[in-house]
């Protein structure tokens, strides 16, 4: 109902001074009511206005100078994306879809593990029927069956391994004694291999279920810490899953949250005009189990109220903390004590004031930690960039040095060649000067032996020397 600032500014600049006489055509009735309330301008929102708006929208690219149909389509697409993004308020760390999927998978795994364990019990029970009464737990039964295998091979040496699995020395001894006097049939090695492989699958499924439960707890502490602190991670996740999302759960009234999950019983009671159900999914909470039979309905209503408050705090707070959930849990505990002993609980106003003070401290601490992390990240990024820049500079210097060395090497080679040339000419000249006298007496050195001088060239050089 509040008019947007940009629209108000546009209307203020576009409308004439005597705007009370102006009738404005607006396509949306809500916007027309807002304009009338804020600016006092009469607005018309009939069928003619809608047709006019449709025509303007159709020929908008022709009416506005410099706007093409392609750019208008891009603008519409960008506006749609920004509107959707603002509507969704997408945050990676607060995605409740993962909670919904994981709690559904957890329930499915419970059913599957139960079914498969019963199959292992029936299958292995033909060979060792006494084990079912000694080990009632499903996953433990599968581990024991995989460890024992053929009961005839069980001996005192494997007693220590049995104790590690069942965590009880008396049980391990009972299994050993039962295996010696069992009434079960013998089993072939091939059947035993199949039973062991299936038991291994069931054990891996149960281990995966434990890991999934830990993941659900960590996710709930990120997305809905107050709700999980109040009612527990599993029940809170079931409430979010049943509502569809945390936002939907926050929009529900407390009376709906109370019977969430008992819709069938509610409609049956309304149809037969019987008593409506007192609780739905929140029955799995420990509070209702601890309450007396006559107080179950009252504590259920009180717990639903607190769950609604916690879900709204989690949904709409910028930095979600578990402070409010802990305080609300204390209130439910006090109400339970009040029903049992008559001790009056604290008022909600006092508790919420304390919670607000503590939550502000926690939020300040969280923001401080985030700032430190951000500073450290920036420092690491800066160091990384500096290291890259230094490496690039070193690479450039090395390449320059290599080019310079190559140039210097080439110059040195040229100088050496030039020096070698005059030395050779001197070597050629020496035998000429010393002449014929030394040729016969002393043998020439190695360098001089290589040079073969023709008599015609010697005469020409002698003539040139004489002329000089």
From TrEMBL:
<dbReference type="InterPro" id="IPR042239">
    <property type="entry name" value="Nop_C"/>
</dbReference>
<feature type="region of interest" description="Disordered">
    <location>
        <begin position="390"/>
        <end position="468"/>
    </location>
</feature>
<protein>
    <recommendedName>
        <fullName>Nucleolar protein 56</fullName>
    </recommendedName>
</protein>
<dbReference type="Pfam" id="PF01798">
    <property type="entry name" value="Nop"/>
</dbReference>
<dbReference type="GO" id="GO:0042254">
    <property type="term" value="P:ribosome biogenesis"/>
</dbReference>
<dbReference type="GO" id="GO:0032040">
    <property type="term" value="C:small-subunit processome"/>
</dbReference>
<feature type="domain" description="Nop">
    <location>
        <begin position="223"/>
        <end position="341"/>
    </location>
</feature>
<feature type="compositionally biased region" description="Acidic residues">
    <location>
        <begin position="423"/>
        <end position="442"/>
    </location>
</feature>
<keyword id="KW-0690">Ribosome biogenesis</keyword>
<dbReference type="GO" id="GO:0031428">
    <property type="term" value="C:box C/D methylation guide snoRNP complex"/>
</dbReference>
<dbReference type="InterPro" id="IPR012976">
    <property type="entry name" value="NOSIC"/>
</dbReference>
<comment type="function">
    <text>Involved in the early to middle stages of 60S ribosomal subunit biogenesis. Required for the biogenesis of box C/D snoRNAs such U3, U8 and U14 snoRNAs. Part of the small subunit (SSU) processome, first precursor of the small eukaryotic ribosomal subunit. During the assembly of the SSU processome in the nucleolus, many ribosome biogenesis factors, an RNA chaperone and ribosomal proteins associate with the nascent pre-rRNA and work in concert to generate RNA folding, modifications, rearrangements and cleavage as well as targeted degradation of pre-ribosomal RNA by the RNA exosome.</text>
</comment>
<keyword id="KW-0539">Nucleus</keyword>
<dbReference type="InterPro" id="IPR045056">
    <property type="entry name" value="Nop56/Nop58"/>
</dbReference>
<dbReference type="GO" id="GO:0030515">
    <property type="term" value="F:snoRNA binding"/>
</dbReference>
<dbReference type="InterPro" id="IPR036070">
    <property type="entry name" value="Nop_dom_sf"/>
</dbReference>
<dbReference type="InterPro" id="IPR002687">
    <property type="entry name" value="Nop_dom"/>
</dbReference>
<comment type="similarity">
    <text>Belongs to the NOP5/NOP56 family.</text>
</comment>
<comment type="subunit">
    <text>Part of a large pre-ribosomal ribonucleoprotein (RNP) complex, that consists of at least 62 ribosomal proteins, 45 nonribosomal proteins and both pre-rRNA and mature rRNA species. Within this complex directly interacts with TCOF1 in an RNA-independent manner. Core component of box C/D small nucleolar ribonucleoprotein (snoRNP) particles; the core proteins SNU13, NOP56, NOP58 and FBL or FBLL1 assemble stepwise onto the snoRNA. Interacts with NOP1 and NOP58. Interacts with NUFIP1, RUVBL1 and RUVBL2; RUVBL1:RUVBL2 seem to bridge the association of NOP56 with NUFIP1.</text>
</comment>
